[in-house]
Automatic annotation (TrEMBL):
GO terms for molecular function: DNA binding. Residues 69-139 form the Transposase Tc1-like domain. Residues 148-302 form the Tc1-like transposase DDE domain. Signal peptide: none annotated. It comes from the Eukaryota. GO terms for biological process: DNA integration; DNA transposition. This is IS630 family transposase.
């Protein structure tokens, strides 16, 4: 009997095998059946004959098909979603890949979908300044950072953040109060506060009514800041004061105030809340406000709640935050001045 050639045998296999199975196999795991080469179909049949399940066959084939192109597009940040990758491959490389396949490829390579975090824009100049700062202070220990008194302003809304809220509701059912996030025209009101903290605990919290100008800021320093130092028995000449680069903070009269009081001011970075541990204290206050089982109807009630939460901030939390400073510096060095995860607590 004449032996069949490999090609003849493969053609016979293709005729004998159920095309519907192959279509399902490639559509679900690799790419649409019509875009499969003949050798790919033959390879699939061979693996199926050897006893591999459809899923394992798809995995074997899929591991080598278009993975390089998919990963390259994500690595270069050319595409942000699986659908973007699919469009790019089809338009630029004439490759047809299912979006679900792309997601599986990315997941197998350790890439998972996440909501983009909102962070201040970092220009090349900002990155360079951040990197220089990190290099300068990379050898500071926790004891060095304990000398710093951290300060900042923050705003709190009566109705919390302006972000999305989610609820569970059956389709077609009437909206109940629990399904609605109440809003008030003109935002419902907010208050603005100034605060500081040390390695010994939080300082005095100041409510700012109206706008903050240089004169009011110097008054806050004279009263709330200096009283905080006095409360913790800290010598103004031995501490280092941190503030951001707001024009009210860097005004000539404000700088003169620091000189007159022999207080050293830490050079600070633009667009760098990830460096400032007080940001976590504000987040802590905001989170606890959301967890309160009371309805805050006006600014006075909001201020009372904020003040109570602030004053109950534990020494342990303040200590933990300052202990993270060497790691924050290290993270910025690793990121070469770029973004960090900013979740040190």
């Amino acid at each position: 009997m004449k032996t069949l050639s490999v090609l003849s045998r493969n053609n016979s296999c293709l005729d004998l095998f159920d095309g519907k199975i192959l279509k399902t196999l490639f559509h679900l795991f690799v790419k649409p059946y019509g875009f499969c080469y003949k050798y790919e179909r033959v390879r699939a049949i061979t693996l199926l004959e050897e006893g591999y399940s459809s899923r394992k066959v798809a995995k074997k084939l899929g591991n080598n098909i278009n993975h390089t192109s998919i990963l390259r597009l994500k690595k270069n940040n050319d595409c942000t979603t699986a659908v973007d990758v699919k469009r790019s491959l089809k338009g630029n490389e004439k490759i047809e890949v299912n979006a679900n396949t792309i997601r599986r490829v990315l997941k197998r390579n350790g890439l998972h979908s996440r909501v983009k975090q909102k962070k201040p824009l970092l220009s090349k100049k900002h990155r360079k300044i951040r990197l220089t700062f990190a290099k300068k202070y990379q050898h500071w220990t926790v004891e060095d950072w304990k000398k710093v008194v951290w300060s900042d302003e923050s705003k709190f809304q009566i109705f919390g953040s302006d972000g999305r809220s989610y609820c569970w509701k059956k389709p077609g059912k009437q909206l109940q109060s629990r399904h609605v996030k109440p809003t008030v025209k003109f935002g419902g009101g907010s208050i603005f506060v100034w605060g500081c903290f040390t390695h010994l605990g939080v300082g005095y919290l100041c409510r700012i009514v109206g706008g903050l100008n240089g004169e009011l800021y110097r008054q806050i320093l004279e009263e709330d800041f200096l009283q905080t130092l006095e409360y913790y028995n800290l010598n103004p000449q031995t501490i280092i004061f941190q503030q951001d680069n707001d024009p009210k903070h860097t005004a000539k009269l404000t700088q003169k105030w620091f000189v007159n009081n022999n207080i050293e001011v830490l050079f600070w970075l633009p667009q760098s809340p990830d460096f400032n541990p007080i940001e976590h204290l504000w987040n802590n206050v905001d989170q606890q406000l959301r967890n309160l089982n009371i309805e805050i109807r006006n600014k006075e009630a909001l201020w009372e709640c904020i003040e109570n939460i602030w004053n109950e901030t534990s020494l342990e939390l303040c200590t933990k935050l300052i202990n993270t400073m060497p790691e924050r510096i290290s993270d910025v060095l690793k990121a070469k001045g770029g973004y960090t995860r900013c979740n040190k607590t």
